[in-house]
Batch of 4 targets.
Target 1
Amino acid sequence: MNRLAGLLAASFFSMCPADALAATRIKDITTVQGIRDNQLVGYGLVIGLAGTGDSFKNSPFTEQSMRSMLRRMGVGVEPGSMKSKNVAAVAVTSTLPPFVAEGSRLDVEVSSLGDASSLIGGILVMTPLVAADGEAYAVAQGPLHTNAIAASGQAASVIKGVPTSARIPNGAIIEKDHTADINRIGSVNLVLQNADFKSATNIADVINAYAKKRYKKAIAQEMDYRTVAIQRPKDVMVTRLIAEIGELQVEADINARIVIDEKNGTIVIGSNVRILPVAVAHGSMMITVTEEPRISQPAALSDGVTAVEPSTTIEVTQENGPVAVLNGPTLGQLVSGLNQMGLKPPDILAILQSIKASGALQAELVVR
């Protein structure tokens, strides 16, 4: 299996030219500065639960919230007089995308805060959702969908999924307009998702080559290794400008890096990884301990007694691994060379760490 994976990797990288591997759309590796999502959060109550809600003794905040809600509705309730387990306090979260208008709807996530055992069948009561600035931008309400199963009897119970978390599709309505007219601004900044000086200059060059043909002048300037500034040409809408630029193909550069996840044995090797010629020998030592007790019988007509004498055999074997010369100017040859040695991920990790320590590995080694 390891040999097959190495051969597949080698053949893949030999068939694909370097430009085809690196070329990608600008919109896939950058974002427009200032155009982003915002997190919303709220505190609310879920009602209508079949006895699976919070116990007011262990979750006193649920009782306080319930009495406050009833008080706003004109119903007075004395403290400690409520014993219902059909109510649960929950945290409600959602994501507010940019340029959403008043009246639009959002999906919301609902999670229990108290000791409720299940939110199945519950209904979220009107809950304001606020952003980091403290302003309420949406209001959530509606029946919960848990996609979970919970059933119990006197002697057994079964739970499938997470019944204390739920979702309300289109459960929130935008109450505060979040639109903006970006077509009035004179410039926009593109922010690279993976910051790199070479990638930033490549993006600026590709945009300028396109702009000189389209607008008769250069409009892009790399500001640093993460930001590319674009000046909006006269009589061109920012929306159309970003749409056209986003479809341009550019060669994105990345640092040479090897990422190894020790927990699940995953090894990811970047395409720019290079290794200088190095000889690698890898073997393992096995120690075998064998106990073979011997029974000692006394001679006939003697006063001796039968005894058990211990006998221990210790054998040490060393499996000499093959000595391989790795000279991988390309990723395909490096992967193929490691796999042809019949190595597993833990062995590859040990070898890569040793090669890195020797100075032959021309890449950053990241171990998680």
Target 2
Amino acid sequence: MAANVETMFSVREKPWHGLGTIVAEAPKSEDALRLAGLDWTIESNPVFDGLGNVIPGYFANTRSSDKKVLGIVGSRYKIVQNKDAFDFTDNLIGEGITYETAGSLRGGKTIWLLGKMPERYIAGDKFEPYICFTNTHDGTGAVRVCMTPVRVVCNNTLNMALSGAIRNWSAIHSQNIGTKLAEARQTLELADQYLVRLDEEADRLANESMSEGEMRDTLKKMFPVDEDATDRQIKTAEKAQDEIMICTLRPDLIQFLNTKWGFLNAVSDWVGHSEPVRRTQNYDENRWGNIIGGHWMLDKAMSLVGAAA
């Protein structure tokens, strides 16, 4: 299956190049997990050496549905089941949060649920804010929550690093219902803080001018070329710079023309929609990670234009 997407569902439309199952709604996490094909558990099994002896201190995280090994972990690793990782998010339902999509990557090693928050206006533009919950079963990461605001008019993701507001955080997922409720409230508070801070930054940057020359100078810093760079490397850097400059002139950004906010939106447009010079096997998977967790290039652009990163 393309894009390293193993299973998924989506409300209303299919992302990931038409993959997944369209549903009307998934009101609870158990429904989202079932529709996304994530209603399986992780089993801990011993690991053996070539002679059939148990290797102490190591265990195989095995998927119950097909006995596939998703990762080898140490004795200190604590399994967080799909249901346990996400059932606390049901406490957000009724607070304006609805499930939009869920699925798995890397053969089930990474799973996610995406919750949609009520629409917000940032710098006069309509945004659809999303909260993404991710979990891994190969020992490479914790249960995490992150903000992903999407500018509706162009479907650009503007999840930038901001001062005074964190973009992603870890989740505890205790079995205690009181802890779950407190964690759900914290999730809403942190998400709201991020959106408020993003609106403040957007308003400030939309009122700060940025000339074409300043944009070009910034892009040269974003795409530095060494003295010993090849002609191909130079052309690749120049092509990226020219494409971003073209993005600043797009109709949906005319209102922010020659401003820092317009420049950042152009970078976001380029990051999210441009074709790579070379499409690697993991390109779509990495792109999904950048959309959810934030793109380093967008953060660098923020820092260079004077926004605190």
Target 3
Amino acid sequence: MTVANPLPNIQPLKPLSLDELEAPPLTLSKMAWLKFRRHKMALVGVGILVLMILYCTLGGLVFSEKFANYNDTGIALQPPSSVHPFGTDVIGRDILARTIYGGQISLLIGLIAVMLETTLGIIIGAVSGYFGGLVDSLLMRFTEAILIVPQIFLLLVMAKFFAGNIPNLTILGREFSGSVVVIIAIIGLTSWPYLARIVRAEFLTLKESEFVLAARATGSSTFDIIFRHILPNSIAPIVVSATLGVANAITLEAYISFLGLGVRPPTATWGNMLEGAYNYIDKAYWLWLFPGLLILLIVLSINFVGDGLRDALDPRSRTI
């Protein structure tokens, strides 16, 4: 008489191979990469972002800035063709060349503004969260005061009064409008409060952790505890915030440039290229289509990468 297996659906455990037994444990960076790789849209965002950077950098080797600023009214408002793939603008400048050099300035504004924003946000948030008490109260009230001021309104006012007073700059053979400095400074100086509050929350959580108490017991200085022990463990939300901040800075520059108060000529950006296009929306679609499409692609790709980084660097998510 045969006895039926009481647990027919349970399979015997497969023994681990020697390679699996000897495989080293995954590091946090490898775990983050594996999780990021599973985020398909983030990978698409990385691909688009790389292509956009190559477009703006390698394109400068094909077209000179002099060609991008050269105007010929005899070919004004020409539609896309084999000679001018993106068409020409109202004074006969090649739009393809201008999107290349305009993209360089838009990316430059985004990166430098985020570097300024991240530096201020980390310093103020770290000091506020670590020391607490009166220091925390004063810094957070100051942060809330900055948050109250509408960023777009401040950008418009400051650009109106200060952009025209700064002379053009020549850096590495390229001439930049003085308004570029004003836009970078205003975006960087008004965007840090959100990051500062994130960093403060991380420091409030981590400053009583065992590794921080051990660092204090061994005589580590306050500077070392803040920047060598706590800050590296708070890097995940900082990276995500900085990534999304680049897209925000590019979008803000496009807003105010479209209103005529952003980066001034002769410097081209995707935003101020749109400024001269709103009167020709029906007549010359290529004036707004190509710079608008590039802004859309760069902002979407950065947001996709930011979403992937947020999921990959989330310490509460351990699934791979």
Target 4
Amino acid sequence: MKTKVLFAAFLCCLFLSCKQKPTEAVVCDSAVQQDITLSSSDFVNVSDVVPDALLEIRYYSAYNFVGARVDGYEQPNALMTRQSADSLRAVADELRAKGYAIKVYDAYRPQMAVDHFVRWGEDIADTAMRHVFYPNVDKSRLFDLDYIARKSSHTRGSTVDLTLFDIASGKELDMGGPFDWFGRESHPDCGGRYIDKVRIEYLPNDTISREQFNNRMLLREAMMNHGFKPYECEWWHFTLKDEPYPDTYFNFPVKEL
């Protein structure tokens, strides 16, 4: 019996190793199997691909909803898979011709950072940054409302959080709400309504002005023009539609490659 169990475990590891690149770490456990890797071989620095991209990596600083530097952010850098960074360069080229640069808040996010968010979310007493990021939401509801999750598309390496910067004025465009705001105001259609699954039209309201709405749509349309899909709850969040690692969650730290 013991021999059979060992042989089965060997076959399990052999099968998984054939599916992974040689540089990737494979977890093979009879009770839990996770597709988590420490490999960064297919990742690039966003700044190397989009040299004029501005970086404000919030999770490297204490100015974020946690109120401290987040685990895994060793340098204020933005990393993405090579495919998604190339697509982001096309976005930046389109927007630059219109007088705008992109400003990145977050890109690849290691699983250790997501785990940090989860620990923070479970610590109901820690509300130091509530007045800045979630004044209208009780922290005990952050998981139920999907503001905090145990898995993130960012960890797959092809998601980016960003905004637009007006080159002439030297200022960010007014999007009608800040990055990482926990509330309905962050939804791309706040102040409008979906015409179909993609298009949104503006409706006069007291929350989002027409200019703020148009700024959101400018970013949204440029991202979608180059293969990114938007997220219905956050105007700043986009994921490459044909992401190369849809089932892999990476866990190497954020630092310059």
